[in-house]
Design a protein that fits this description.
Layout lengths: L22 H10 L1 H23 L3 E5 L3 E4 H6 L6 E8 L4 E6 L1 H11 L17 H21 L7 E8 L13 E11 L2 E10 H4 L3 H11 L3 H13 L6 E2 L3 E2 L4 H5 L10 E2 L2 E6 L2 E11 L2 E9 L14
Antiparallel strand pairs: 1-6, 2-6, 3-4, 3-5, 4-7, 6-7, 8-11, 9-10, 11-12, 12-13
Length: 316
């Protein structure tokens, strides 16, 4: 779909041909918002899939390709000729959208609703519909426009309306050839047959939604502080620390220490329950014993954060 740019210059909308922005700045503004448009296109694809599945009573899947910023002349050049083209008013937004339907999409929907299975849609390239076929086309675009309005409901009360049709992409002049637009391509799969729907909006159509789109882009962007804290947390989990536990202790006078000789035995008092220290800070209440012939600790409890004493002066 389309996109939006930076602030106005001199009060002139950047999306209009007479805007004060250069082509380069306009392009940068469009490209900056493509991630937001991709998210909206995903919602649009989901809405179309549900609506068409209900209308056709067939399983329909829709996927969206990444939005692309390009000149309008390039967008029209990439479309198949002839195609079924609908000009869509984007009330209350200014400007006109272009929906370019793969001819097979129209033929496939008509064929299925007439009881067919889509095997002969490649042969159907006519656009002179009968009254019944025209009602089917009206129903198809009712689904597409309803899904579009729902996808954009977070930004505005969009009321898309059909303004006219054409079959030659170059004749659908919604803006000048050199203006930047953002286009999206949806791939619809019905009864195993893939067809395409291209959507294009000129920059001026999205200009009133500049601030909401930017807000959504910031909301979708990763938080730098959160990213840093997550990285720090992952790093800290790999840091090795020393766990120590005192199995016993004894009190001696200085004179007794001076009288010690090799081979002397010092009786110690062993406490069944004590505190294990992490880098010198007592954190874990536990009791000691043996397991498989090795000394072992059984954890009883962890010290509450508000009761953890400071580390000793030697850094532990």
């Amino acid at each position: 779909m389309a996109a939006i740019g930076h602030e106005r210059a001199g009060g002139t909308a950047w999306g209009t041909p007479t805007g004060a922005y250069t082509q380069a700045i306009q392009s940068a503004g469009l490209r900056a918002c493509l991630p937001v448009l991709d998210r909206l296109n995903q919602r649009l694809a989901q809405g179309i899939a549900v609506g068409l599945s209900d209308t056709l009573n067939k399983l329909c899947t829709v996927r969206s390709e990444p939005a692309v910023a390009e000149h309008f002349v390039d967008f029209t050049r990439h479309q198949e000729n002839p195609s079924y083209i609908e000009l869509i008013g984007m009330q209350p937004l200014p400007g006109t959208a272009v929906f370019v339907c793969d001819p097979k999409l129209i033929a496939l929907v008509i064929d299925i609703l007439f009881g067919g299975d889509g095997r002969f849609v490649d042969r159907m390239r006519r656009f002179d519909f009968t009254p019944t076929e025209k009602r089917i086309v009206d129903s198809l675009f009712g689904v597409l426009l309803d899904a579009l309005a729902r996808a954009w409901s977070a930004f505005c009360d969009l009321r898309p309306i059909r303004l006219g049709t054409d079959t030659h992409p170059g004749l659908a002049q919604i803006t000048t050839a050199d203006d930047w637009v953002a286009s999206s391509r949806l791939i619809l799969a019905i009864e195993g047959i893939e067809v395409t729907l291209a959507i294009c909006l000129p920059a001026s159509t999205l200009e009133p939604l500049r601030d909401p789109l930017r807000a959504l882009r910031r909301a979708l962007a990763p938080d730098p502080e959160r990213r840093w804290s997550d990285l720090l947390a992952r790093h800290l989990q790999t840091v090795e620390v020393e766990l120590s536990y005192t199995l016993g202790s004894a009190q001696l006078t200085l004179g007794e220490v001076l009288d010690l000789r090799a081979g002397d035995i010092i009786p110690i008092e062993s406490h069944q329950v004590g505190m294990a220290c992490i880098e010198g800070v007592p954190l874990i209440a536990c009791r000691h014993g043996t397991l498989n012939g090795h000394y072992a600790l059984k954890i009883d409890a962890f010290s509450p954060p508000d009761q953890i004493p400071p580390a000793t002066h030697d850094g532990r």
